[in-house]
């Protein structure tokens, strides 16, 4: 069996991009069996250094995108009788690190 290579540029923090990403994937492969949530944003800085925009971007990619992608994928997985969703986290969600305020919060 030949490996199919397929890439779709998308900003997983945007609902429209998430819908398009899942729809194009299902259209290309004919079904959706699994979802790997592995996107992540890391802005260096402590709570006083991180800007509101950096905080929002980190939470939108590292947290909201996991929910949005899972929500968009689930109906397609149900159609084929199931599937797997794998969420990649970080040890920084459990153990803090210097200058990782937004990232650590998003992974916890």
What does this structure look like?
The structure is a single chain. With 108 residues, the protein is mainly alpha-helical. The protein has a single domain, classed as NAD(P)-binding Rossmann-like Domain (Rossmann fold), CATH 3.40.50. The chain contains 3 helices and 2 strands. It has helices spanning 15-29, 52-79, 101-107, and strands at 34-37, 84-87. β1, α2 (52-79) and β2 (84-87) form a beta-alpha-beta unit. The chain is elongated. The mean pLDDT is 94.
Could you name the key traits of this structure?
single chain; 108 residues; mainly alpha; Rossmann fold; two-stranded parallel sheet; 3 helices; 46% helix; elongated
Task: Write the topology of this structure.
Elements: H1 15-29, E1 34-37, H2 52-79, E2 84-87, H3 101-107
Parallel strand pairs: 1-2
Helix pairs in contact: 1-2, 2-3
Short structural description:
It is built from three helices and two strands. α2 links the parallel β1 and β2.
**Remind me, CATH topology?**
Rossmann fold
Gross CATH architecture: 3-Layer(aba) Sandwich
Give the fraction of residues assigned to helices: 40-55%
| First-to-last CA distance | 39 Å
Give me the side-by-side strand order of the main sheet. Answer: 1-2
């Amino acid at each position: 069996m030949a490996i199919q290579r397929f890439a779709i540029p998308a900003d997983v923090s945007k609902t429209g991009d998430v819908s398009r990403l899942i729809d194009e994937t299902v259209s290309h492969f004919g079904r959706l069996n699994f979802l790997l949530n592995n996107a992540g944003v890391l802005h260096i800085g402590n709570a006083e250094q991180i800007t509101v925009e950096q905080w929002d971007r980190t939470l939108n990619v590292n947290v909201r995108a996991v929910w949005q992608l899972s929500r968009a994928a689930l109906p397609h997985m149900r159609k084929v009788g199931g599937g797997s969703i794998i969420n990649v986290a970080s040890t920084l969600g459990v153990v803090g690190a210097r200058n990782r305020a937004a990232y650590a919060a998003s992974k916890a």
